[in-house]
Design goal:
homodimer; mainly alpha; Farnesyl Diphosphate Synthase; two-stranded antiparallel ribbon; 15 helices
Chain lengths: ~300, ~300
């Protein structure tokens, strides 16, 4: 499947998995609103492609893939809250709390954290209980304080204090921590889960984790770059907030040129890993080309 | 074990299970703060007692019991937020957002939702994957939009609108829905999970669910009564908010006397169920006596 076919399938499944008329409707409508906003669906695609790379059936990965997109939506809902980033727009539409109110947005996010694994448990019984337990372990690890939430906490703290070596970390180390957890962990989860569904070996799972780390950091650098060079129309959210706020980002720390070079380098390493698997993934390569194109990396910067 | 011995054991285990120096410390400290506030520990006691009633080893239920207390703490942290009930005190101490700020409180709650099952998965491997999957299913059901969050959404909505038959429900039906989900579901989860750990039959699990429903509604009625007749010192939180706000509660709907009668009646039914099990639970009976004493139900109201 190419990326567009994947996106179409994932959107259809997300629509099926998200009820809108269950009681009380307010919460289910609010959950569904953000989950089904148009998006690139990178994380579910990664989950299904990782499953395919290691010889699994992508059908088996659909519930987990969609669940991880729900978790991603949860992080967006809560990150946008007035007490966090206070954003009014996401993916070109009003943010969840703007539409449903702040209390509902908090609760919709809360509900998605447990709804997503419920979808996995309900629709993946054919995987057997051993794989299900492994997937639950991965989900809880990367969804929580050791994963994406730890990254978000450090990010919020860094916004105010990064020049003061908070947490005893140098700014470079702090930025690495934030990118690893806030972004790469939500790539690690689908790539590892897809591999587990396919029955990959521990060594294979480690290798796909390495890809997740590089791709996650690359993606975050590209986001930091786009925040400087892009427009609201292109991004669908308020732009320039990070640089305006003198926030800790790759660009504020290393400058635009070095950031682009680092990004190009990481993306090349990702390509090498992807090409090393027995089964090739055109879709993952396409994702990497897409990142290059968005930030305007031309071939002179890459091999 | 009597209630005090249970509380001591649970407090010790909660302290062990909750790290405070993991990175980033802010989030782990914030999570631990609310989880370890002194409390009655009703839900973990229920989990361990249910396990014992059905012939299980209470040691096996400790991680799940503690995890459910963590989930309970999560609901308290988010319910107290400015955008929800906006409470400054909980269990006699400043609420989580008062101590750690609103963003951290939202994230600490989020993190507890996935940290709690992580504790179960990590410390209950001896149960085997089949039981673990069942416990995960129960947890996700009652933690989410079909459980305690559904109850909270309806409760918030009811605060403003209950006289207008919101959701197409009569006030009596709406109140029943709120009590069932906001309170009874967090009794159902530990009682059912304890039974599952012990390997109870489906019929036994149904029976303990019935106890959960009655005890949950009874507990909520007692809370509604106490909100009218109690003081801040006794409750450790702001008192009289519900009746002042003309909120939908058992007392505003049926009056104080009818509420007390209904409560006495439910508690008697709970005692009957508890006494019908082969293994008796003095602890659960003690919890019921405690509720009676708190609201001043004397023997003339009960059999």
């Amino acid at each position: 499947m190419n990326l567009n076919e994947y996106i179409e399938l994932i959107n259809k499944k997300l629509d099926e998995f998200m009820p809108e008329n269950d009681f009380p409707q307010d919460i289910f409508k609010s959950m569904k609103y953000t989950v089904t906003l148009p998006g690139k669906r990178l994380r579910p695609i990664m989950c299904m492609e990782s499953c395919r790379i290691f010889g699994g059936n992508i059908e088996d990965a659909i519930p987990t893939a969609c669940a991880i997109e729900m978790l991603h939506a949860q992080t967006l809902i809560h990150d946008d809250l007035p007490c966090m980033d206070n954003d009014d727009f996401r993916r070109g539409k009003p943010t969840n709390h703007k539409v449903f109110g702040e209390a509902n947005a908090v609760l919709a996010g809360d509900a998605l954290i447990s709804f997503a694994p419920q979808i996995i448990l309900k629709h993946s019984k054919n995987l057997g209980t051993e794989k299900l337990v492994k997937i639950m372990e991965e989900y809880m690890q990367y969804a929580g304080a050791y994963g994406v939430i730890g990254g978000q906490v450090a990010d919020i703290e860094a916004e105010k204090n990064w020049k003061n070596n908070i947490f005893g970390l140098q700014p470079e180390e702090l930025l690495e921590f934030i990118h690893t957890h806030k972004t790469a962990d939500l790539f690690r989860l689908p790539l590892r889960a897809g591999a587990i569904i396919a029955g990959a070996s521990d060594k294979e799972i480690e290798k796909i984790s390495e890809l997740a780390q590089k791709l996650g950091v690359a993606f975050q650098i590209s986001d930091d770059i786009l925040d400087v060079i892009s427009t609201f129309e292109e991004m669908g959210k308020t732009i320039g907030k990070d640089s305006n706020a003198d926030k800790l980002t790759y660009v504020t720390l290393y400058g635009l040129d070095t950031s682009k070079c680092k990004l190009a380098c990481l993306l090349d390493e990702c390509c090498d890993i992807i090409k090393s698997f027995n089964i090739k993934s055109e879709s993952l390569l396409e994702i990497i080309s897409g990142i290059k194109k968005r930030v305007g990396i031309n071939d002179s910067l890459t091999r």
